[in-house]
Predict the structure of Phosphoribosylformylglycinamidine synthase subunit PurS.
Amino acid sequence: MIKASVYVTIKQSVLDPQGVAVQGALHSMGFREVESLRIGKYMELQLDTNDRFEAEARVKAMCEKLLANTVVEDYRFELEG
Amino acid sequence: MIKASVYVTIKQSVLDPQGVAVQGALHSMGFREVESLRIGKYMELQLDTNDRFEAEARVKAMCEKLLANTVVEDYRFELEG
């Protein structure tokens, strides 16, 4: 069993309206030290395999095909176990 | 300038319908090794402070008050810089 942690973030050049909104909310609550805030997705997958090399290729394929929109998003992942 | 990475995940005892849907989509695409998948949020904050101790308390307060719904979500964060 391998655990994969996938991080999907909006590319730096792309506007993140959700992040801007949350930053505005934090400012109005008094957290004025927040200079920027960007929101992404974090996914934890349990994979029924023990082949780390294969798992790496498979998770990469999942990210490219479904988990991330590579036009506007970046992704990275870590494998454990 | 301190960078905070905040991870907000749905508690293990709480159903994650978005994760179930994505897992179903992966299965139907042939990624049958995915045993479970849970989706959370990942936030990157740039904080205009150099006081790590203060930053830790402030980010904790942001999570408790806005970034996480502690009834159904867990959070953790890391500070860098």
About this structure: Residues 63 and 69 of chain B are 8 Å apart (CA to CA). Residues 2-80 of chain B form a domain with the Mth169; Chain: A , fold (CATH 3.30.1280.10). The helical segments of chain B are 17-28, 52-67.
